[in-house]
Amino acid sequence: MNVSNSTATRKSKFAFRQDSVGYNPDRHHNSDVKIASLTYNEDESEAYRAHDASTHYKYRGTYWNEGKREIMIRYIQLALIGLIQGSVAYFCNVACHYFVERKFERVASILESGSYFFAFLSYFGHQLTFAAFASLAVMIEPMSGGSGIPEVKCFLNGIDLPRINDIKTGLCKVIGVVGSVSAGLPVGKEGPMVHSGAVVAASVTRSSVRDDKARRDFVACGAASGVCTAFSAPIGGMLFAFEEGASYWSQSVTFRTFFCSACSIATLYTWNSVGSSFGALGFDKLFSFGNFIFEGMQASYSVWELLIFVFIGCMGGMIGAIFNNTNEKLTHWRIKHVNHSKFRRYLEVLCISSIVSIVCFGIPFIFHECIQVPDTDGMSQQQVELINRFVQFGCPEGQYHPTASLFFTDGNDAIKLLFHMHEHTFPEKALLLFFVCYISLATVTYGIAVPSGLFVPSLLSGAAFGRLFGNLIYKIIPDKVAFSNTYSLIGAAAVLGGMARMTISLTVILLEATGNEQFVLPLMISLFCARVVGSLFNTDLYHIHIHLKPGVHFLDGELRAISGHHDLYAGHIMSKDLVFIRPIEKVATVYDLLATCDHAFFPVVDTEDRDILYGTVSRHILTTLLQQRAIGVAANPSASPNRNIVQNHVTLEPNCNYVPLVPYKILEREYPAYTPISEIAVSDNDRECFIDIRPYCNTAPHTVQETTSVRRAYETFRTLGLRMLLVVNKYNQCVGTITRDDLTAEALAQDMITKGKNL
Amino acid sequence: MNVSNSTATRKSKFAFRQDSVGYNPDRHHNSDVKIASLTYNEDESEAYRAHDASTHYKYRGTYWNEGKREIMIRYIQLALIGLIQGSVAYFCNVACHYFVERKFERVASILESGSYFFAFLSYFGHQLTFAAFASLAVMIEPMSGGSGIPEVKCFLNGIDLPRINDIKTGLCKVIGVVGSVSAGLPVGKEGPMVHSGAVVAASVTRSSVRDDKARRDFVACGAASGVCTAFSAPIGGMLFAFEEGASYWSQSVTFRTFFCSACSIATLYTWNSVGSSFGALGFDKLFSFGNFIFEGMQASYSVWELLIFVFIGCMGGMIGAIFNNTNEKLTHWRIKHVNHSKFRRYLEVLCISSIVSIVCFGIPFIFHECIQVPDTDGMSQQQVELINRFVQFGCPEGQYHPTASLFFTDGNDAIKLLFHMHEHTFPEKALLLFFVCYISLATVTYGIAVPSGLFVPSLLSGAAFGRLFGNLIYKIIPDKVAFSNTYSLIGAAAVLGGMARMTISLTVILLEATGNEQFVLPLMISLFCARVVGSLFNTDLYHIHIHLKPGVHFLDGELRAISGHHDLYAGHIMSKDLVFIRPIEKVATVYDLLATCDHAFFPVVDTEDRDILYGTVSRHILTTLLQQRAIGVAANPSASPNRNIVQNHVTLEPNCNYVPLVPYKILEREYPAYTPISEIAVSDNDRECFIDIRPYCNTAPHTVQETTSVRRAYETFRTLGLRMLLVVNKYNQCVGTITRDDLTAEALAQDMITKGKNL
């Protein structure tokens, strides 16, 4: 198909290629998947400005003006997001708790009768049923599998993954995670809660939000609210959204996130206080992982123990790096051999559920051991209550089975036991066994077709590791070091930090989930070391999984140093295949262009005036203009726009027959799903007409000079949240475009190799 | 003086005014003070690129390459900053504690002998001496007065206040604040600690840092470390730097701040553990405001009490707004009547110190009351120790004086008493008296010529207010509400939040200073309400004081809504008085330009090629080029640069006699204080030579189209940390510049009024 622009005078000596619209848009990757990007900067067209001014002036002078109205609606929506996400998290907790309790109650009653075999059968059956149920949710909506954090990160980074924020995805995720947690798989519900928060935010604001930027800000609030409800950690949630999520962050978004988090945690507390007298709230309800109570000196740490915490942090970093590496290789294998068939994915879940059941029942069965329950004298209220969480597993009354208390119980209970019981509760053998088996199971599990968070398994295995370490240290220097439950907290942080490589947000999340600020410095130190050591080997697990998604080009916070040494300029890395349009264009050209080229934005080039860049126009505006038949016959087809120097107001010439403006409200009406060009019919008569794009052009697009360094281009692109950055020469003629695809590490590496040849 | 460019062909029809360099650069403000700005974006000249590439390639292939070397040095510096600031904070604490203890010991011993009059004289004399000493430090270095937080905020915003980061300023600040705290003035040492952290950071890195951006990042780390050591709040410090300070924040800066905070808090803890056995650290050393111990139900709060906290938050917002308003008016008066004379400033300090002494001694004397010291049964260790902090003030053994325990003691002790003793410790009358008097004194004191933080006085009066409220609530609904010490924490947060309008960082600082995470939601709620209510009336106190500084143009996080409605474009607000230079320029022109125009950057305009914008060059590069005599006689004076389209390499023509390049190392050698132009002599012979600016030009400056909305121009300017934003028309001809002065609220308001006339 040839849509070449024969009426245009081609004065330009540059390689404009309006006639080559059928080229391969993905020059660096041969993947078939084409993931769209989001646009996080505002429109600057005349149409938008007119719309904005009219809404502004409509209420000007009245007390209840447009700005106040908007703020009010926004905060009502944020409160609603907090309310819904708080309730979702509460009911998810209740459901998981209910199912897990029932499961263990039944199995325990069979165990009491002495029949290990039937107990195992009952346990196995329960777990398999729940796993099958969880996987069913993922079969219905594949986007609901996994943790959800990589997907939310992608969205906040500006990648438009399909169906990521749909209500269906959210429902499948929440229902599925109840199944997978109840199935006793080594998964947590924290990642899925983040995703659920994002879905809630997107759903609540779907009808009112009209642009990508506003949507992103709400989703960031929702994600923060998700973390907040998952761990009862409102500040941690905000910091998570800041550290992990947002490429761009402003004070007003911080403030909104703060409000949304407060609402969601208030909702969660209110639900948690149901049943208590008059809304009173016990400490056990406030902290997800139990309260690290202030005790005598030995519950705290000495300053010199910080050195031991440095070592634990480094170990955690290495454990995390091994975990990430193994899981990456497994995921590669999975993509190749399992993921292409729904049946195989389902079968895999059932297999892994079976293995988990066999390990969790078999190991306590083989390594049978009974220990006297410690005396409750001098214990805190919380510890006395925790004693009830010890598992007997065939041990006589008054004794407990240490291995079973870790394997054969709910993950949250195991974490609390590891965090809060004092030394000698768990022998080293039980801790070592549990650590090795559980982390191996977690490595295999993350990535199968169930909703699965990574926080609880990492924390649990880390807590066992830390406690083991603490026990050993205690044997070497007794009476000088902190209790081993302190070490279990540090170990948990180190292993989780080694996987997720977060620092500030994890510190705060763990502080808020355990209630005691005295551990702020040890946590900071171990998380810092875990991150530094882990980063020597590989990147965090979320990034690994993002990079394994086909067609996704995630932009990291900073450009890697190797590309930053000014070896590359914007002119080297840009796509030179430029598809442009003129300010006043033939309908036939516009239509054919849209039909053959899938770009989301087009530069508008004034071929009548030195080929300079006039502005940009988005695909959906062109589509809507065609749909609205905003076309006409020009009085003088070759008339060029009036070239006044300060081009503040593009004026239509009086003697032309173009149809009037399409208001901005109509242009944005279909957001975010616009009618595709294939559904718009243009008659042969219309094809000869002209379309005036000038009022809808963004006449101040973001541009960089071709001599700009890649580092600056990258910074501009990412900081301002662009979808397309135009590269101009010094005459302001557009010579190329930079999109997300051109800024990935792979694309830049290739550009560095072919640099000489490209010029 | 006329330096008009007669050799240039003036083809342009735009109002270039190279001949009008003597115009008033400050078009919106008539102040005489000219505060320079900082540049937070990187150089992109050929000279810099050559330098960067050469350092990069020098070590390429070796293990210990330039990047690793830089990172290593940076982290050593950060550790050093933490170490020094931690030690400064510790010794400052120790000195304050020592002086205050001695003062009260002596006065108490005279009181015991029964002589109120001599006790008062001794008290009065001590306080006056310390106040005179504190004020002396400010007389030596005026920049060390006040809190220091506004100054640090200005620096991070890009305003180059003179002497702000000098060692002398830091020393005067730290020594002065010991004096002012010992003088019993209603001031805290937290603000000065922030300033001290910034000074430490700037001093440690002075020799290695070669650009404003790196310096800013270090100062941000230092400020965070200052907050961190002031409150023992490492996470709070980071969030403070994020929320209050930085206009720009990146993940790598977050990580560095995290490291620096960890180092400083580790240093502080290590110093604090001196004297304990083997580095052990008690809880009393961990938390600045004492540890909110987990107790039974009533120490916590019920969910429905959150509504009461909303009310307290709103009240705190109003109190803060009144405080800010009164202090603003007082400061206006002070600027007019006091600040112009050093003698008057000194006298003012002595007067206020006298008033403080009279009030703090007089009120306990007039309202004499003795209460039985409560029984220590069932008290926590901390409360038992706090009982020793009760002040007798003439009461018999076993009794204490409630009013004196608030007025006649160290501020930190009073806060701890208010925070941790249970109900009935302070009668309502004492609390009301203390609240009213203390906040009035604080209002008068903030702004006098002593180093003075605002946190402790706000927290202290807020704690009294909250406790008063708690006592009243308890009378209405006894046994249902939390203890009044919980209310005192919420009240303290509300009043401080009402003044400083911080949310997330204050929440975390208060949590870290009191050690108990259970109050996260109440604190969030009250701080949110305080900010919202306070913002209805005025802005925060730091902003008020920033705006009172002459010549300072602070750029807020977001443009005010009124300018944002696309009524204004970049073309409306820009300065049209353009002073430009040509790529190859006569020495005479350059010299005269530098001598008569104080701009820091000059656009380089290629008058031989359609007047397009060639790049920008900074003042100090031109000065250095003249100093280095990088001049020569052109083979062909009118030779214009080789116009190849992709201008990646500006090549010197072979037949020209220009002297070779001045390396970048020489250009940056004098940073940050460059030789002024007046000290450079240029002979009459040299004046006729030419200077080739092209290799030193930034050929990819940040530009905006004149049709760009103000909102976007503002965002670009602030997000990228620019000093000058060039405005170009669609042919890439420079038509104006936007600097910090053009983007203030006042300048924009004026532009809106004169919009039509300007065009």
From TrEMBL, chains A, B:
Superkingdom per UniProt: Eukaryota
> Sorted alphabetically, which PROSITE patterns does this protein's record hold?
CBS (PS51371)
One Pfam family matching this protein: CBS
List the subcellular locations. Membrane
Q: Tell me what topology the record assigns in the membrane.
A: Multi-pass membrane protein
GO molecular function (one): chloride channel activity
- Report the residue ranges that make up the CBS domain in this protein: 697-755
Report the InterPro entries cross-referenced here.
Answer: CBS_dom (IPR000644), CBS_dom_sf (IPR046342), Cl-channel/antiporter (IPR051280), Cl-channel_core (IPR014743), ClC (IPR001807)
Q: Would the keyword Ion transport be found if you checked this record's keyword annotation?
A: yes
- Record-level GO cellular component terms: membrane
The residue ranges crossing the membrane are: 78-100, 120-140, 218-241, 306-325, 346-367, 430-449, 489-511
Where does this chain mainly localize? Answer: membrane
User: What keywords sit in the KW lines?
Assistant: CBS domain, Chloride, Ion transport, Membrane, Repeat, Transmembrane, Transmembrane helix, Transport
CDD domains xref list: CBS_pair_voltage-gated_CLC_euk_bac
Family label: Belongs to the chloride channel (TC 2.A.49) family.
What's this protein's name? Chloride channel protein
